[in-house]
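Minutes, methods subgroup
Present: GH (chair), OT, SY

1. OT presented the first of two proteins processed in the latest run. Sequence and C-alpha coordinates recorded below as shown on screen.
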Amino acid sequence: VREHHFEDAYLQSLLGLKTRMTQTKEELEKTAWHEAGHALVSLLTGHEVPRVSILPRERTLGVSFSKPKHESFANNNREELLEKVMVGLGGFCAERSKYGQVTPGAFDDLRRANKLISDMVNLYGMGDGILTGITSDYITSDAMKVKFDQCMMDMLQQCVKSTDRLLEENKDALEALALGLLEKETLFDREISAIVS
Protein backbone atom coordinates (compact mmCIF):
# COMPACT_ATOMS: atom_id res chain seq x y z
CA VAL A 1 0.00 0.00 0.00
CA ARG A 2 1.48 3.29 -1.13
CA GLU A 3 0.74 6.94 -0.43
CA HIS A 4 -1.12 7.31 -3.72
CA HIS A 5 -3.60 4.61 -2.60
CA PHE A 6 -4.58 6.74 0.42
CA GLU A 7 -4.77 9.82 -1.79
CA ASP A 8 -7.05 8.05 -4.26
CA ALA A 9 -9.28 6.82 -1.43
CA TYR A 10 -9.51 10.35 0.00
CA LEU A 11 -10.44 11.87 -3.37
CA GLN A 12 -12.98 9.12 -4.01
CA SER A 13 -14.70 9.70 -0.66
CA LEU A 14 -14.67 13.48 -1.16
CA LEU A 15 -15.52 13.81 -4.87
CA GLY A 16 -16.70 10.38 -6.01
CA LEU A 17 -15.25 7.95 -8.50
CA LYS A 18 -13.34 9.01 -11.60
CA THR A 19 -15.68 9.15 -14.57
CA ARG A 20 -15.21 8.42 -18.25
CA MET A 21 -17.11 11.57 -19.13
CA THR A 22 -16.07 12.90 -22.50
CA GLN A 23 -15.81 16.68 -22.59
CA THR A 24 -15.35 18.83 -25.65
CA LYS A 25 -12.30 21.06 -25.96
CA GLU A 26 -14.48 24.08 -25.11
CA GLU A 27 -15.89 22.39 -21.99
CA LEU A 28 -12.42 21.45 -20.76
CA GLU A 29 -11.22 24.99 -21.37
CA LYS A 30 -14.07 26.45 -19.29
CA THR A 31 -13.32 24.02 -16.47
CA ALA A 32 -9.62 24.94 -16.63
CA TRP A 33 -10.34 28.68 -16.38
CA HIS A 34 -12.80 28.07 -13.55
CA GLU A 35 -10.37 25.99 -11.47
CA ALA A 36 -7.46 28.30 -12.31
CA GLY A 37 -9.54 31.17 -10.89
CA HIS A 38 -10.02 29.35 -7.59
CA ALA A 39 -6.35 28.40 -7.37
CA LEU A 40 -5.01 31.85 -8.22
CA VAL A 41 -7.25 33.69 -5.76
CA SER A 42 -6.25 31.15 -3.10
CA LEU A 43 -2.56 31.83 -3.70
CA LEU A 44 -2.98 35.60 -3.88
CA THR A 45 -4.83 35.67 -0.55
CA GLY A 46 -2.06 33.72 1.18
CA HIS A 47 -3.44 30.17 1.08
CA GLU A 48 -1.49 27.12 0.05
CA VAL A 49 -2.79 25.27 -3.01
CA PRO A 50 -1.56 21.66 -2.90
CA ARG A 51 -3.40 20.58 -6.07
CA VAL A 52 -5.73 21.73 -8.82
CA SER A 53 -7.25 19.39 -11.37
CA ILE A 54 -9.67 19.27 -14.29
CA LEU A 55 -10.10 15.49 -14.19
CA PRO A 56 -13.85 14.83 -13.81
CA ARG A 57 -15.29 12.83 -10.95
CA GLU A 58 -18.86 11.90 -10.07
CA ARG A 59 -19.54 15.12 -8.18
CA THR A 60 -17.34 17.62 -10.00
CA LEU A 61 -15.73 18.49 -13.33
CA GLY A 62 -12.61 19.81 -11.58
CA VAL A 63 -11.30 20.76 -8.17
CA SER A 64 -8.92 23.22 -6.57
CA PHE A 65 -7.72 22.38 -3.07
CA SER A 66 -6.94 25.29 -0.77
CA LYS A 67 -5.28 24.73 2.59
CA PRO A 68 -6.92 26.89 5.27
CA LYS A 69 -4.81 29.31 7.29
CA HIS A 70 -6.20 27.92 10.55
CA GLU A 71 -7.06 24.36 11.49
CA SER A 72 -10.07 25.61 13.47
CA PHE A 73 -12.73 27.61 11.61
CA ALA A 74 -13.39 29.56 14.83
CA ASN A 75 -9.95 31.20 14.62
CA ASN A 76 -10.73 33.04 11.38
CA ASN A 77 -11.21 36.79 11.61
CA ARG A 78 -13.49 38.88 9.40
CA GLU A 79 -10.87 39.57 6.73
CA GLU A 80 -9.92 35.90 6.52
CA LEU A 81 -13.55 34.86 6.08
CA LEU A 82 -13.97 37.46 3.33
CA GLU A 83 -10.89 35.94 1.67
CA LYS A 84 -12.63 32.53 1.82
CA VAL A 85 -15.60 34.08 0.06
CA MET A 86 -13.27 35.50 -2.60
CA VAL A 87 -11.63 32.10 -3.11
CA GLY A 88 -15.10 30.61 -3.56
CA LEU A 89 -15.92 33.30 -6.13
CA GLY A 90 -12.64 32.81 -8.01
CA GLY A 91 -14.06 30.31 -10.51
CA PHE A 92 -17.20 32.35 -11.15
CA CYS A 93 -15.22 35.56 -11.69
CA ALA A 94 -12.62 33.83 -13.90
CA GLU A 95 -15.34 32.38 -16.14
CA ARG A 96 -17.03 35.76 -16.42
CA SER A 97 -13.72 37.48 -17.15
CA LYS A 98 -12.82 35.04 -19.94
CA TYR A 99 -16.22 34.40 -21.54
CA GLY A 100 -18.40 37.32 -20.47
CA GLN A 101 -20.85 34.86 -18.90
CA VAL A 102 -20.91 31.95 -16.45
CA THR A 103 -22.06 28.34 -16.46
CA PRO A 104 -24.26 26.53 -13.93
CA GLY A 105 -21.06 24.83 -12.75
CA ALA A 106 -20.49 27.85 -10.49
CA PHE A 107 -23.74 27.14 -8.62
CA ASP A 108 -22.23 25.35 -5.62
CA ASP A 109 -19.44 27.94 -5.28
CA LEU A 110 -22.00 30.76 -5.25
CA ARG A 111 -24.23 28.91 -2.78
CA ARG A 112 -21.35 28.45 -0.34
CA ALA A 113 -20.13 32.06 -0.76
CA ASN A 114 -23.64 33.40 -0.09
CA LYS A 115 -24.03 31.11 2.92
CA LEU A 116 -20.74 32.26 4.46
CA ILE A 117 -21.64 35.94 3.96
CA SER A 118 -25.06 35.28 5.52
CA ASP A 119 -23.48 33.56 8.52
CA MET A 120 -20.95 36.38 8.95
CA VAL A 121 -23.70 38.99 9.08
CA ASN A 122 -26.50 37.08 10.81
CA LEU A 123 -24.60 34.80 13.21
CA TYR A 124 -21.07 36.09 13.80
CA GLY A 125 -21.76 39.82 14.21
CA MET A 126 -19.36 40.68 11.36
CA GLY A 127 -21.64 43.06 9.49
CA ASP A 128 -20.66 46.55 8.39
CA GLY A 129 -21.42 49.84 10.12
CA ILE A 130 -24.21 49.70 12.69
CA LEU A 131 -24.46 45.91 12.29
CA THR A 132 -20.95 45.29 13.66
CA GLY A 133 -21.32 43.10 16.73
CA ILE A 134 -25.07 42.52 16.18
CA THR A 135 -26.62 39.18 15.21
CA SER A 136 -30.08 38.74 13.70
CA ASP A 137 -31.29 36.34 16.42
CA TYR A 138 -33.64 38.77 18.13
CA ILE A 139 -34.35 41.23 15.32
CA THR A 140 -38.08 41.55 14.76
CA SER A 141 -38.47 44.87 12.97
CA ASP A 142 -38.80 44.76 9.20
CA ALA A 143 -36.57 47.83 8.89
CA MET A 144 -33.71 46.03 10.64
CA LYS A 145 -34.21 42.90 8.53
CA VAL A 146 -33.82 45.08 5.43
CA LYS A 147 -30.55 46.45 6.87
CA PHE A 148 -29.24 42.91 7.37
CA ASP A 149 -30.20 41.96 3.80
CA GLN A 150 -28.58 45.10 2.40
CA CYS A 151 -25.42 44.50 4.41
CA MET A 152 -25.13 40.95 3.03
CA MET A 153 -25.62 42.17 -0.54
CA ASP A 154 -23.07 44.95 -0.11
CA MET A 155 -20.45 42.61 1.39
CA LEU A 156 -20.97 40.01 -1.33
CA GLN A 157 -20.74 42.60 -4.12
CA GLN A 158 -17.55 43.99 -2.57
CA CYS A 159 -16.07 40.47 -2.58
CA VAL A 160 -17.02 40.05 -6.25
CA LYS A 161 -15.36 43.39 -7.11
CA SER A 162 -12.23 42.53 -5.12
CA THR A 163 -11.99 39.12 -6.79
CA ASP A 164 -12.51 40.65 -10.25
CA ARG A 165 -9.77 43.19 -9.54
CA LEU A 166 -7.35 40.53 -8.25
CA LEU A 167 -7.84 38.39 -11.34
CA GLU A 168 -7.56 41.37 -13.69
CA GLU A 169 -4.29 42.47 -12.07
CA ASN A 170 -2.94 38.92 -12.48
CA LYS A 171 -4.54 37.89 -15.77
CA ASP A 172 -1.26 36.54 -17.19
CA ALA A 173 -0.91 34.17 -14.24
CA LEU A 174 -4.56 33.15 -14.59
CA GLU A 175 -4.09 32.30 -18.26
CA ALA A 176 -0.84 30.46 -17.56
CA LEU A 177 -2.56 28.32 -14.90
CA ALA A 178 -5.47 27.53 -17.21
CA LEU A 179 -3.11 26.54 -20.02
CA GLY A 180 -1.05 24.44 -17.59
CA LEU A 181 -4.20 22.58 -16.56
CA LEU A 182 -5.18 21.96 -20.16
CA GLU A 183 -1.75 20.52 -20.80
CA LYS A 184 -1.30 18.37 -17.66
CA GLU A 185 -4.87 18.04 -16.26
CA THR A 186 -3.54 18.06 -12.68
CA LEU A 187 -1.03 20.51 -11.20
CA PHE A 188 0.65 20.16 -7.81
CA ASP A 189 1.93 22.86 -5.45
CA ARG A 190 5.42 23.28 -6.92
CA GLU A 191 4.12 23.38 -10.49
CA ILE A 192 1.42 25.89 -9.49
CA SER A 193 3.94 28.16 -7.74
CA ALA A 194 6.33 27.96 -10.70
CA ILE A 195 3.58 28.89 -13.17
CA VAL A 196 2.28 31.80 -11.08
CA SER A 197 5.73 33.21 -10.31
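2. SY then presented the second protein from the same run.
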Amino acid sequence: MVSLDPSDPDNTIYVGTGETWTRNSVSVGCGLFRSRDGGSTWEHLGFGQSERIANVIVHPEDPKVIYVGVLGALWSDSEERGVYKSTDGGASWERVLYLNPRTGLADMAMDPTDPNTLYASMWEFRRTAWSFESGGGNSALFKSTDGGQTWEKIHKGFPEGKLGRLAIAVAPSNPKVLYTVIEAEKPARKGLYRSDDAGAQWKQLNNDFEITVRPFYFSRIVVDPKNENTVVKGGLSGSISRDGGKTFKNLGAMHSDIHDIAFGILDSDILYAGTDGGLYRSWDGGNTFEINED
Protein backbone atom coordinates (compact mmCIF):
# COMPACT_ATOMS: atom_id res chain seq x y z
CA MET A 1 0.00 0.00 0.00
CA VAL A 2 1.44 3.34 -1.15
CA SER A 3 0.06 6.63 0.21
CA LEU A 4 1.11 10.25 -0.23
CA ASP A 5 1.01 12.95 2.44
CA PRO A 6 -1.60 15.45 1.12
CA SER A 7 0.39 18.28 2.74
CA ASP A 8 3.56 17.34 0.85
CA PRO A 9 2.69 14.93 -1.98
CA ASP A 10 5.87 15.57 -3.98
CA ASN A 11 8.17 14.43 -1.21
CA THR A 12 6.49 12.49 1.60
CA ILE A 13 5.52 8.90 0.74
CA TYR A 14 4.31 6.10 2.99
CA VAL A 15 4.60 2.42 2.06
CA GLY A 16 2.86 -0.30 4.02
CA THR A 17 4.50 -3.59 3.09
CA GLY A 18 3.06 -7.06 2.52
CA GLU A 19 0.61 -8.42 -0.01
CA THR A 20 -3.05 -8.12 1.05
CA TRP A 21 -4.65 -10.21 -1.72
CA THR A 22 -4.33 -13.40 0.28
CA ARG A 23 -3.51 -16.21 -2.13
CA ASN A 24 -1.56 -19.18 -0.78
CA SER A 25 1.69 -17.77 -2.23
CA VAL A 26 1.80 -14.13 -1.16
CA SER A 27 4.65 -11.98 0.08
CA VAL A 28 5.19 -11.09 3.74
CA GLY A 29 5.92 -7.49 4.67
CA CYS A 30 8.17 -6.02 7.34
CA GLY A 31 6.25 -2.94 8.45
CA LEU A 32 5.66 0.69 7.55
CA PHE A 33 8.19 2.94 5.80
CA ARG A 34 8.30 6.67 5.04
CA SER A 35 10.34 8.77 2.65
CA ARG A 36 10.61 12.56 2.97
CA ASP A 37 12.64 13.06 -0.20
CA GLY A 38 10.48 11.56 -2.92
CA GLY A 39 11.70 8.00 -2.39
CA SER A 40 15.48 8.52 -2.31
CA THR A 41 15.80 7.46 1.33
CA TRP A 42 13.47 5.66 3.74
CA GLU A 43 12.88 5.31 7.48
CA HIS A 44 11.11 2.46 9.27
CA LEU A 45 8.11 3.48 11.39
CA GLY A 46 7.30 0.18 13.08
CA PHE A 47 4.78 -2.65 12.58
CA GLY A 48 7.59 -5.11 11.99
CA GLN A 49 5.36 -8.08 12.87
CA SER A 50 2.33 -6.90 10.89
CA GLU A 51 3.07 -9.02 7.78
CA ARG A 52 0.41 -7.16 5.75
CA ILE A 53 -0.60 -3.48 5.89
CA ALA A 54 -3.79 -2.79 3.94
CA ASN A 55 -4.15 1.01 4.27
CA VAL A 56 -2.28 4.16 5.22
CA ILE A 57 -4.21 7.44 5.47
CA VAL A 58 -2.60 10.78 6.33
CA HIS A 59 -4.77 13.59 7.70
CA PRO A 60 -5.20 16.17 4.89
CA GLU A 61 -4.57 19.15 7.19
CA ASP A 62 -2.33 17.77 9.94
CA PRO A 63 0.49 15.52 8.67
CA LYS A 64 1.26 14.40 12.20
CA VAL A 65 -2.02 12.43 12.25
CA ILE A 66 -1.64 9.11 10.46
CA TYR A 67 -3.91 6.05 10.35
CA VAL A 68 -2.58 2.59 9.53
CA GLY A 69 -4.75 -0.46 8.87
CA VAL A 70 -3.10 -3.82 9.55
CA LEU A 71 -4.54 -6.93 7.92
CA GLY A 72 -1.97 -9.12 9.61
CA ALA A 73 -0.81 -12.72 9.39
CA LEU A 74 -2.29 -15.17 6.88
CA TRP A 75 -1.34 -18.50 8.43
CA SER A 76 -1.73 -17.83 12.14
CA ASP A 77 -3.26 -15.67 14.84
CA SER A 78 -1.78 -12.20 15.20
CA GLU A 79 -2.11 -9.56 17.89
CA GLU A 80 -0.89 -6.79 15.59
CA ARG A 81 -4.14 -6.51 13.60
CA GLY A 82 -6.53 -3.56 13.48
CA VAL A 83 -6.47 0.22 13.03
CA TYR A 84 -3.66 2.30 14.53
CA LYS A 85 -3.39 6.07 14.92
CA SER A 86 -0.42 8.35 15.42
CA THR A 87 -0.69 12.01 16.44
CA ASP A 88 3.05 12.67 16.45
CA GLY A 89 4.03 11.85 12.89
CA GLY A 90 4.66 8.16 13.47
CA ALA A 91 6.85 8.40 16.55
CA SER A 92 4.24 6.48 18.57
CA TRP A 93 1.05 4.55 17.79
CA GLU A 94 -2.24 3.85 19.53
CA ARG A 95 -4.45 0.98 18.42
CA VAL A 96 -7.96 2.40 18.10
CA LEU A 97 -9.84 -0.58 16.60
CA TYR A 98 -9.18 -4.24 17.38
CA LEU A 99 -11.48 -7.26 17.49
CA ASN A 100 -9.44 -10.46 17.92
CA PRO A 101 -6.29 -12.26 16.67
CA ARG A 102 -8.14 -13.72 13.64
CA THR A 103 -9.70 -10.48 12.35
CA GLY A 104 -7.69 -7.83 10.51
CA LEU A 105 -8.32 -4.54 8.73
CA ALA A 106 -9.17 -5.24 5.08
CA ASP A 107 -10.02 -1.72 3.90
CA MET A 108 -10.29 1.81 5.26
CA ALA A 109 -11.50 5.17 3.95
CA MET A 110 -11.77 8.77 5.16
CA ASP A 111 -14.49 11.32 4.44
CA PRO A 112 -12.66 13.97 2.34
CA THR A 113 -14.78 16.75 3.83
CA ASP A 114 -14.46 15.60 7.46
CA PRO A 115 -11.15 13.95 8.43
CA ASN A 116 -12.66 12.79 11.73
CA THR A 117 -15.04 10.47 9.86
CA LEU A 118 -13.47 7.12 9.03
CA TYR A 119 -14.76 3.80 7.71
CA ALA A 120 -13.06 0.48 8.43
CA SER A 121 -13.89 -3.01 7.22
CA MET A 122 -12.70 -5.82 9.47
CA TRP A 123 -12.23 -9.30 8.02
CA GLU A 124 -11.99 -12.63 9.83
CA PHE A 125 -9.89 -15.08 7.83
CA ARG A 126 -7.37 -17.91 8.05
CA ARG A 127 -5.44 -19.94 5.51
CA THR A 128 -3.96 -23.35 6.22
CA ALA A 129 -2.01 -25.73 3.99
CA TRP A 130 -5.26 -27.51 3.10
CA SER A 131 -8.00 -24.88 3.39
CA PHE A 132 -8.96 -21.21 3.41
CA GLU A 133 -11.61 -19.63 5.63
CA SER A 134 -12.84 -16.25 4.42
CA GLY A 135 -15.34 -14.77 6.80
CA GLY A 136 -16.84 -15.25 10.21
CA GLY A 137 -18.91 -13.66 12.91
CA ASN A 138 -16.43 -10.82 13.42
CA SER A 139 -16.27 -9.53 9.84
CA ALA A 140 -17.98 -6.13 9.85
CA LEU A 141 -18.01 -2.56 8.57
CA PHE A 142 -17.44 0.18 11.15
CA LYS A 143 -17.69 3.98 11.21
CA SER A 144 -16.02 6.54 13.46
CA THR A 145 -16.93 10.23 13.65
CA ASP A 146 -14.37 11.21 16.28
CA GLY A 147 -11.06 10.44 14.62
CA GLY A 148 -11.08 6.74 15.49
CA GLN A 149 -11.65 6.96 19.23
CA THR A 150 -15.04 5.21 19.06
CA TRP A 151 -16.61 3.01 16.37
CA GLU A 152 -20.09 1.80 15.49
CA LYS A 153 -21.13 -1.06 13.23
CA ILE A 154 -23.10 0.18 10.19
CA HIS A 155 -24.99 -2.86 8.89
CA LYS A 156 -28.56 -1.71 8.30
CA GLY A 157 -29.52 -3.39 5.01
CA PHE A 158 -26.59 -5.83 5.05
CA PRO A 159 -27.01 -9.59 4.52
CA GLU A 160 -27.77 -11.73 7.55
CA GLY A 161 -25.30 -14.33 8.77
CA LYS A 162 -21.52 -14.41 8.63
CA LEU A 163 -19.76 -12.00 6.28
CA GLY A 164 -16.44 -12.31 4.49
CA ARG A 165 -14.24 -9.60 3.04
CA LEU A 166 -15.76 -6.13 2.56
CA ALA A 167 -14.45 -3.25 0.47
CA ILE A 168 -15.30 0.37 1.25
CA ALA A 169 -15.17 3.51 -0.90
CA VAL A 170 -16.38 7.08 -0.34
CA ALA A 171 -17.46 9.24 -3.29
CA PRO A 172 -15.16 12.31 -3.18
CA SER A 173 -17.74 14.54 -4.90
CA ASN A 174 -20.50 13.54 -2.46
CA PRO A 175 -19.21 11.84 0.72
CA LYS A 176 -22.69 10.74 1.74
CA VAL A 177 -22.46 8.18 -1.07
CA LEU A 178 -20.62 5.02 -0.02
CA TYR A 179 -20.03 1.75 -1.82
CA THR A 180 -19.12 -1.63 -0.39
CA VAL A 181 -18.70 -5.07 -1.92
CA ILE A 182 -19.80 -7.80 0.47
CA GLU A 183 -18.87 -11.48 0.61
CA ALA A 184 -21.91 -13.21 2.16
CA GLU A 185 -23.12 -16.74 2.97
CA LYS A 186 -26.19 -16.51 0.75
CA PRO A 187 -25.16 -16.15 -2.93
CA ALA A 188 -28.15 -13.95 -3.75
CA ARG A 189 -27.21 -11.46 -1.04
CA LYS A 190 -23.52 -10.92 -1.85
CA GLY A 191 -22.29 -8.20 -4.18
CA LEU A 192 -22.32 -4.41 -4.43
CA TYR A 193 -24.19 -2.29 -1.87
CA ARG A 194 -24.64 1.48 -1.83
CA SER A 195 -25.52 3.99 0.87
CA ASP A 196 -26.76 7.50 0.14
CA ASP A 197 -26.75 8.63 3.77
CA ALA A 198 -23.15 8.04 4.90
CA GLY A 199 -23.75 4.45 5.96
CA ALA A 200 -26.99 4.78 7.92
CA GLN A 201 -28.75 2.49 5.43
CA TRP A 202 -27.59 0.21 2.62
CA LYS A 203 -29.19 -1.22 -0.51
CA GLN A 204 -27.96 -4.08 -2.67
CA LEU A 205 -27.56 -3.01 -6.30
CA ASN A 206 -25.64 -5.71 -8.14
CA ASN A 207 -24.40 -9.25 -7.74
CA ASP A 208 -23.11 -10.02 -11.24
CA PHE A 209 -20.34 -12.63 -11.48
CA GLU A 210 -17.58 -10.11 -12.14
CA ILE A 211 -18.62 -8.16 -9.02
CA THR A 212 -18.70 -11.18 -6.72
CA VAL A 213 -15.91 -13.39 -8.10
CA ARG A 214 -13.20 -14.38 -5.58
CA PRO A 215 -13.83 -11.57 -3.07
CA PHE A 216 -10.77 -12.42 -0.96
CA TYR A 217 -8.66 -11.68 -4.06
CA PHE A 218 -10.65 -8.95 -5.83
CA SER A 219 -12.27 -6.41 -3.54
CA ARG A 220 -10.85 -3.04 -4.62
CA ILE A 221 -13.55 -0.49 -5.47
CA VAL A 222 -12.87 3.11 -6.56
CA VAL A 223 -15.21 6.05 -7.22
CA ASP A 224 -14.67 8.76 -9.85
CA PRO A 225 -13.51 11.89 -7.94
CA LYS A 226 -15.94 14.07 -9.92
CA ASN A 227 -18.94 11.76 -10.37
CA GLU A 228 -20.50 9.81 -7.50
CA ASN A 229 -22.24 7.47 -9.97
CA THR A 230 -19.11 6.25 -11.77
CA VAL A 231 -17.53 3.38 -9.88
CA VAL A 232 -14.88 0.84 -10.87
CA LYS A 233 -14.41 -2.63 -9.35
CA GLY A 234 -11.32 -4.82 -9.63
CA GLY A 235 -11.74 -8.40 -10.80
CA LEU A 236 -10.83 -10.91 -13.47
CA SER A 237 -11.52 -8.31 -16.17
CA GLY A 238 -12.46 -5.32 -14.06
CA SER A 239 -15.87 -3.61 -14.24
CA ILE A 240 -17.13 -0.05 -14.54
CA SER A 241 -20.56 1.37 -13.77
CA ARG A 242 -21.79 4.79 -14.84
CA ASP A 243 -25.24 4.56 -13.29
CA GLY A 244 -24.38 4.39 -9.60
CA GLY A 245 -23.70 0.66 -9.49
CA LYS A 246 -26.91 -0.64 -11.06
CA THR A 247 -25.18 -2.04 -14.14
CA PHE A 248 -21.55 -2.76 -15.00
CA LYS A 249 -19.55 -3.56 -18.10
CA ASN A 250 -16.03 -4.92 -18.47
CA LEU A 251 -13.14 -2.52 -18.66
CA GLY A 252 -11.19 -2.20 -21.92
CA ALA A 253 -9.14 -5.23 -23.02
CA MET A 254 -6.00 -5.79 -20.93
CA HIS A 255 -4.24 -8.50 -18.97
CA SER A 256 -6.55 -10.30 -16.54
CA ASP A 257 -6.64 -9.93 -12.76
CA ILE A 258 -7.12 -6.23 -12.05
CA HIS A 259 -6.19 -5.49 -8.44
CA ASP A 260 -6.07 -1.71 -8.27
CA ILE A 261 -7.50 1.31 -10.09
CA ALA A 262 -6.77 5.02 -9.84
CA PHE A 263 -8.48 7.99 -11.48
CA GLY A 264 -6.60 11.04 -12.66
CA ILE A 265 -6.98 13.79 -10.05
CA LEU A 266 -7.61 16.59 -12.56
CA ASP A 267 -9.12 14.55 -15.39
CA SER A 268 -11.17 11.51 -14.41
CA ASP A 269 -11.26 10.28 -18.02
CA ILE A 270 -7.71 9.16 -17.27
CA LEU A 271 -7.61 5.83 -15.42
CA TYR A 272 -4.75 3.62 -14.35
CA ALA A 273 -5.21 -0.11 -13.72
CA GLY A 274 -2.73 -2.33 -11.92
CA THR A 275 -2.96 -5.89 -13.25
CA ASP A 276 -1.05 -9.16 -13.06
CA GLY A 277 0.44 -8.18 -16.41
CA GLY A 278 1.55 -4.67 -15.54
CA LEU A 279 0.21 -1.12 -15.46
CA TYR A 280 -2.37 0.02 -18.03
CA ARG A 281 -3.70 3.49 -18.80
CA SER A 282 -6.96 4.73 -20.29
CA TRP A 283 -7.55 8.18 -21.80
CA ASP A 284 -11.27 7.72 -22.45
CA GLY A 285 -12.87 6.87 -19.13
CA GLY A 286 -12.10 3.16 -19.22
CA ASN A 287 -13.48 2.29 -22.65
CA THR A 288 -10.02 1.35 -23.94
CA PHE A 289 -6.68 0.74 -22.24
CA GLU A 290 -3.05 0.70 -23.36
CA ILE A 291 -0.07 -0.79 -21.62
CA ASN A 292 1.85 1.96 -19.82
CA GLU A 293 5.51 1.62 -20.68
CA ASP A 294 6.67 4.98 -19.29
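Chair's summary of item 2: The first strand starts at residue 2 and ends at 4.
Next meeting: continue with the remaining queue.
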